[in-house]
Each structure stands twice: as structure tokens, then as C-alpha cells.
């Protein structure tokens, strides 16, 4: 008999506290989603724009928006589409204290960051304002970035980028107003500038919509000397679906 005590204990714990799907709460054998919910998620896969990560037609490599105006970040990737189905998980993670989702989301992000061509030096979460942190009690992107650091052993640096003003909720704004709203809202903390200069940065956010937020962060990071700024998010809003 070659059964480890830890395996027996795990079986007993699973019997007493059965695991449930993070989406519909039906019982599952391993952490994550049940088969039905897994199939309902729109996992993002090729063909996607080589720069912004948006799903595109197979004939092109870069989407029309990135051709019209190349983003400041070098490349962005996301795990799944933010739609009527996946929205529930993201809202729970962001606003309903479901912080236990962070390790699982980080595991999914770890799989897709292999698409980046340069080795990453530092993981930086998109910051939130002091006021928002007080209201929410946590920054969900910090939790994601920290879990990703634990999985990948890449340095985690949450102090070098700061949000210095509480901006309006981006969701309700047009692209033009989003840019205006975000202008000068992020800044580099001078004491930690050495963590950015000549480094390949991985910026972590929960959802990418127009890309205005991560682009503004990338602008500050590149102004401070970052070599490359990659972006990884758990979800991506396809504006055509909304
Ligand atoms: Zn389910
Ligand atoms: Zn693009």
C-alpha cells in the first residue's frame, strides 16, 4: 500500500467539505469550474491580435485599431471573454469579497503569459486609489499579481506604480472621455523607480476593455525606463458584444 497520509486527509476533507464550481456551485471533483460552466466560458484563443489580444479574423495578424494607433504597451493577453456568463465570476472577485478566486485565476494567467517573447523581470498590479481601496478593503489585481508571483517566482512589485486620483468609473465613459479621465491619474513612486528602469514588466489587471487604463500605466512605466510592458488580464470585454 502506497497511499500517503496527506492524500487520505485530502479525501476526508473533500468528503466533509465537498468542492463546488466557482460559477454555479454544483459539486466538482477538482478546484475550478464544472464541465457545463467550462463549456460556457468563451476562452480566448487564436486568432487574436498580436498586440492587444482581441479576437480577430484569421487573415490578419494585427487588428485595425492597433494599426490605426499602436498601443504603448507591447502586448496584451487575456484568459476569457467578459460576457453575460463570465461577468458573474469577475463581479464576485472584484466587489463581493470572493478573494479565494485569485489563486485559480493566477493559474490560468500563468498559462497564457508563455506567449510573451521576453523573460519577465517584474510583475506589477494596476493600482487603485486610496479611497477605492478603503471602500473595497482589497485590490483584486494585487491579489492576482501576488498569486502569479508565487506560481512563477517572478519578482512582485506593488509599490512602484501609484494611482493618485480617484477617477470616474470607466465603464460608463466613451473612449475619448476614458482617456481624459485617466490622464495623469497614475504616477511612478520615485523610491522604487529602480525596479522599473531597464526591466521587462508584466502589468496585471482583472479586465481589459478599451485598454485605456493599461495604456496609461504603460506610458508611465516606459517614461520611467521600462524596456517592455506586457499586459495580462483574466477577462477581456469584446465591445461588439455589448
Ligand atoms: Zn458550474
Ligand atoms: Zn489589436
Jot down its keywords:
single chain; 242 residues; alpha/beta; 2 domains; 5-stranded parallel sheet; two-stranded antiparallel ribbon; 9 helices; binds zinc ion
How many extended strands?
Answer: 7
Helix content: 25-40%
| Ligand set | zinc ion
Rg to the nearest angstrom?
A: 19 Å
Proportion in β-strands: 15-25%
CATH topology of the largest domain, what is it called? Answer: Rossmann fold
Helix and strand element order: HHHEHHEHHEEHEEHE
Shape designation: globular
Kindly report how far apart the N and C termini lie. Answer: 56 Å
Largest sheet: 5 strands, parallel
Highest-level CATH class of the largest domain: Alpha Beta
Number of domain modules: 2
What does this structure look like?
With 242 residues, the chain is α/β, with parallel strands linked by helices. It has two domains: 1-40, no CATH class; 43-241, Rossmann fold. It has helices spanning 5-16, 35-40, 64-68, 87-95, 102-112, 130-136, 140-152, 175-182, 212-223; strands at 75-82, 122-125, 155-156, 161-163, 186-188, 200-208, 228-237. The strands form two sheets. The protein has a five-stranded parallel sheet with strand order 1-7-6-2-3. Helix 9 (212-223) links the parallel strand 6 and strand 7. It starts with a helix and ends in a 5-residue tail after the last strand. The model has no long low-confidence stretch (mean pLDDT 88). Bound molecules: zinc ion (2 copies). The site of one zinc ion has 8 residues, from helix 2. Residues 21, 23-24, 26, 33-34, 36-37 line the site of one zinc ion (ZN).
Amino acid at each position: 500500500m502506497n497511499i500517503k497520509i496527506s492524500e487520505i486527509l485530502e479525501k476526508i476533507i473533500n468528503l466533509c467539505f465537498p468542492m463546488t464550481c466557482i460559477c454555479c456551485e454544483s459539486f466538482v471533483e477538482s478546484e475550478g469550474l464544472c464541465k457545463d460552466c467550462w463549456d460556457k466560458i468563451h476562452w480566448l484563443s487564436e486568432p487574436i491580435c498580436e498586440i492587444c489580444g482581441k479576437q480577430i479574423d484569421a487573415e490578419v495578424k494585427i487588428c485595425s485599431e492597433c494599426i490605426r494607433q499602436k498601443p504603448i504597451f507591447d502586448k496584451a493577453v487575456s484568459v476569457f471573454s467578459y460576457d453575460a456568463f463570465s461577468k458573474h465570476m469577475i463581479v464576485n472577485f472584484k466587489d463581493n469579497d470572493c478573494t479565494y478566486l485569485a489563486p485559480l485565476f493566477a493559474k490560468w494567467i500563468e498559462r497564457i503569459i508563455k506567449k510573451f517573447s521576453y523573460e519577465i523581470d517584474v510583475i506589477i498590479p494596476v493600482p487603485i486609489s486610496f479611497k477605492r481601496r478603503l471602500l473595497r478593503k482589497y485590490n483584486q489585481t494585487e491579489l492576482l499579481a501576488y498569486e502569479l508571483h508565487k506560481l512563477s517566482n517572478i519578482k512582485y512589485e506593488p509599490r512602484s506604480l501609484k494611482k493618485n486620483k480617484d477617477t470616474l468609473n470607466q465603464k460608463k465613459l466613451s473612449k475619448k472621455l476614458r482617456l481624459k479621465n485617466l490622464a495623469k491619474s497614475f504616477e511612478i513612486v520615485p523610491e522604487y523607480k529602480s525596479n522599473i528602469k531597464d526591466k521587462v514588466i508584466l502589468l496585471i489587471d482583472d479586465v481589459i476593455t478599451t485598454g485605456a487604463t493599461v495604456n496609461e500605466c504603460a506610458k508611465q512605466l516606459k517614461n520611467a525606463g521600462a524596456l517592455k510592458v506586457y499586459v495580462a488580464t483574466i477577462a477581456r470585454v469584446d465591445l461588439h458584444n455589448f
